[in-house]
Amino acid sequence: MGQVQPDGHPLGIMPKVLVVPPALASVAMNLNKSDLLVEAATAGAPQPSGNIWKSMFEPVVSAYLANSSISGYSSTGYYLLADPNELACWEVAFLDGKEVPTLESADVDFDSLGVQYRGYIDFGVGQQDTRAGVFMTGA
């Protein structure tokens, strides 16, 4: 929420999506739905009486975040992302705006019985604005 534009003025974009690994799924769901958060008591620190984060973020669970075969994986890290309609981290574009696969069929060679099929989809992904997302290590 404290990010700024290149000229130093506030960006003014609120986080909307909370992306977590599977290990944090229940924490994210509880944060989104619970009326009350209870923190561990620490030397006279007051207990919070409500959940100020309730319904603020849309929780999304991604198994890719904790997959050890992907570099940079983490079972404690999470992302806060802006509403992609306001400011997008990534953009997906489709050739000629066609968002469904193209399916083609043809007869097989004369010495075989049957029909052959193939399907494809033309799309690309590009990074947009890095300020639209923030990664937290969670550790």
Largest sheet: 4 strands, mixed
Mean pLDDT over the full residue set:
89
Spatially, the strands of the biggest sheet line up as 2-1-3-8
Beta-strand percent range: 25-35%
Radius of gyration: 22 Å
Order of helices and strands: EHEEEEEEE
Task: Compute the number of strand runs.
Answer: 8
Structural category = mainly beta
Task: Report the end-to-end length measured between terminal Cα atoms.
Answer: 21 Å
Overall morphology = elongated
Helix content: under 10%
Low-confidence runs: none
Q: How many helix segments?
A: 1
Features:
four-stranded mixed β-sheet, mainly beta, 8 strands, two-stranded antiparallel sheet, 139 residues
What does this structure look like?
With 139 residues, the protein is mainly beta. The chain has a domain at 15-88 and 129-136. The protein is 6% helix and 29% strand. It is built from one helix and eight strands; from the N terminus they run E-H-E-E-E-E-E-E-E. The protein has one helix at residues 25-33, and strands at 15-20, 58-61, 78-82, 90-94, 102-107, 115-120, 123-127, 133-136. The strands form three sheets. A four-stranded mixed β-sheet has the order 2-1-3-8, with helices on one face. It has a two-stranded antiparallel ribbon with strand order 4-7. A two-stranded antiparallel sheet has the order 5-6. Strand 5 (102-107) and strand 6 (115-120) form a beta hairpin. The two termini are 21 Å apart. The relative contact order is 0.21.
